[in-house]
């Protein structure tokens, strides 16, 4: 697919995101790919703050700030209103964090995509409820410290596979993307824009504040998540056709975990166990894509 990404930005300078905020980078890339004929539905999340309080906005497109649990429902209503006006060109996008997607917003999301509502739902995933104080979500990975999984009570449940949950709805398009691979992200946004019906994008967006990393390695961390197979880049069409977009080098996960303060409590045995989990998930994805199996050890 030939990409036509213009030089224009649709995010103003001076937003209130933290230094190194992956969610701010992700929004910039997304809107460059979508263009100005876009309406953003933003449930409660970090971007509710980053965008600024009404009547000010950090975005150059219309925004509807909505309740935490309503991303799928509000986008459905906006799409219906635009259709009633005869506007078939404007793209409706729900932009939500992992808390508003994996957890609180999942009911409305599931209902909307079961109806195959015509909008793009984007989850920028920073793996916790960062806006309200770094609480655990079902996106928080196994082994992570949060304020609600502190000390020896670090999270001992595996991260929910949100893409597979959406794939089970047999929607036209679902894909993962990362701020560290902008060309892949642009291509997937452009592809989603051209498809009718429900589309879902899961964007890996690092959070220096919650992950306890220096802001200057935010992109490096996102790249390592892909290179270690922790966050593979792939897409699924019509719930059945899997395509892996990037075959990583398969670095050991400990190289990724040791750079982040939220994992500093983990032992070598813990890291070995997580390595096995990552390999299990990666090999399952390879089988779904018809690509065999691999191991990093």
3D architecture notes:
The structure is a single chain. The protein is an alpha/beta fold and 297 residues long. It has one domain (22-288): Rossmann fold. It has helices spanning 22-34, 46-50, 71-84, 99-103, 106-114, 162-167, 182-194, 208-211, 218-227, 254-257, 268-288; strands at residues 38-43, 63-66, 91-97, 120-125, 173-178, 199-204, 234-237, 241-244. Strands 2-1-3-4-6-5-7-8 form an eight-stranded mixed beta sheet, sandwiched between helices. A hairpin with a 3-residue loop joins strand 7 (234-237) and strand 8. It starts with 21 loop residues before the first helix and ends in a 9-residue tail after the last helix.
Which regions are unreliable across 5 or more consecutive residues at pLDDT < 50?
none
Q: In the CATH hierarchy, what is the class?
A: Alpha Beta
The largest sheet has its strands arranged as: 2-1-3-4-6-5-7-8
Q: What's the Cα radius of gyration?
A: 18 Å
Shape: globular
CATH topology: Rossmann fold
Largest sheet: 8 strands, mixed
| Mean pLDDT across all amino acids | 94
Tally of separate helices: 11
How many structural domains does the protein architecture include?
Answer: 1
Q: How many extended strands? A: 8
Fraction in helix: 25-40%
Order of helices and strands: HEHEHEHHEHEHEHHEEHH
What CATH architecture label applies? 3-Layer(aba) Sandwich
**CATH superfamily placement:** Thiamin diphosphate (ThDP)-binding fold, Pyr/PP domains
Beta percentage is 5-15%
Summing up helix and strand content along with how strands pair, one would put the structural category as alpha/beta
Tell me the span between the first and last alpha carbons.
36 Å
- Assembly state: single chain
């Amino acid at each position: 697919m030939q990409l036509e990404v213009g030089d224009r930005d649709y995010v103003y300078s001076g937003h209130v995101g933290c230094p190194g905020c992956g969610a701010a980078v992700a929004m910039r890339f997304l809107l460059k790919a979508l263009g100005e004929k876009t309406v953003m539905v933003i449930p409660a999340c970090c971007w509710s703050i980053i965008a600024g309080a009404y009547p000010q906005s950090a975005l150059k497109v219309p925004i509807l700030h909505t309740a935490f649990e309503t991303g799928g429902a509000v986008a459905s209503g906006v799409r219906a209103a635009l259709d009633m006006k005869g506007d078939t060109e404007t793209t409706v996008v729900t932009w939500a964090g992992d808390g508003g997607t994996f957890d609180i917003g999942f009911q409305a999301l599931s209902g909307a995509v079961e109806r195959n509502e015509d909008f793009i739902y984007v989850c920028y995933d920073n793996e916790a409820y960062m806006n309200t104080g770094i609480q655990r979500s079902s996106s928080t990975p196994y082994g992570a410290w949060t304020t609600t999984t502190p000390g020896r009570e670090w999270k001992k449940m595996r991260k929910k596979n949100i893409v597979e949950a959406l794939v089970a709805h047999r929607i036209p398009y679902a894909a993962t993307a990362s701020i560290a691979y902008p060309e892949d992200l642009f291509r997937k946004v452009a592809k989603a824009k051209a498809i009718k019906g429900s589309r879902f994008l899961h964007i890996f967006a690092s959070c220096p504040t919650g992950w306890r990393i220096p802001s200057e390695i935010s992109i490096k961390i996102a790249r390592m998540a892909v290179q270690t197979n922790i966050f593979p880049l792939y897409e699924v069409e019509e719930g059945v056709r899997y395509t892996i977009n990037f075959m990583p080098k398969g670095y050991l996960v400990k190289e990724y975990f040791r750079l982040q303060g939220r994992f500093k409590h983990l032992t070598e045995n813990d890291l070995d166990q997580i390595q096995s989990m990552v390999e299990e998930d990666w090999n399952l994805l390879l089988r779904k894509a018809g690509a065999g199996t691999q191991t990093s050890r």
